[in-house]
Fold this sequence. Notes:
Helices cover 32% and strands 32% of the residues. With 201 residues, it is an alpha+beta fold. Strands 2-9-3-4-1-5-6-7-8 form a nine-stranded antiparallel beta sheet, sandwiched between helices. It is globular and about 45 Å long.
Amino acid sequence: xxxxxxxxxxxxxxxxxxxxxxxxxxxxxxxxxxxxxxxxxxxxxxxxxxxxxxxxxxxxxxxxxxxxxxxxxxxxxxxxxxxxxxxxxxxxxxxxxxxxxxxxxxxxxxxxxxxxxxxxxxxxxxxxxxxxxxxxxxxxxxxxxxxxxxxxxxxxxxxxxxxxxxxxxxxxxxxxxxxxxxxxxxxxxxxxxxxxxxxxx
Length: 201
């Protein structure tokens, strides 16, 4: 079934603390351990479930004072899913370039001020970037390659009077369309995350 924003309406009820401020990154054919290595990150432990990951992120923030990025990674259908509660590392070019070298990567980010980004990389190169709140303004080497998918998942590409109500859910749905990885409450609750921390670039 082709995902749309409606398929991710559960996020607000199931993961309210996560989607208020998060970064979700998917890297193809790179293991969680290898992903940590590409980010010069250290492994810290393991937690099971998204609620435990959000809690661990809060504790890590207090311990580091924001000097390191907290990461939770797990393998899903040939991809590594990297989740950063209240984080943003995966959205940075400095992280996405090495993570995507020789493979592909999709990442999306939102902070508490509703600043958001969606990016797709292939072999270290930025293919697509846009802000989900402003999907008409796109850049990258192939800025229009996913326009049809963007419309299908629920992004409003009208210059004026755009519908801004479903942008976060549409970002999750577009990531699924581009990777084939469907996130669900069951997957996130049952996932065993390898946790780690990376230096701030």
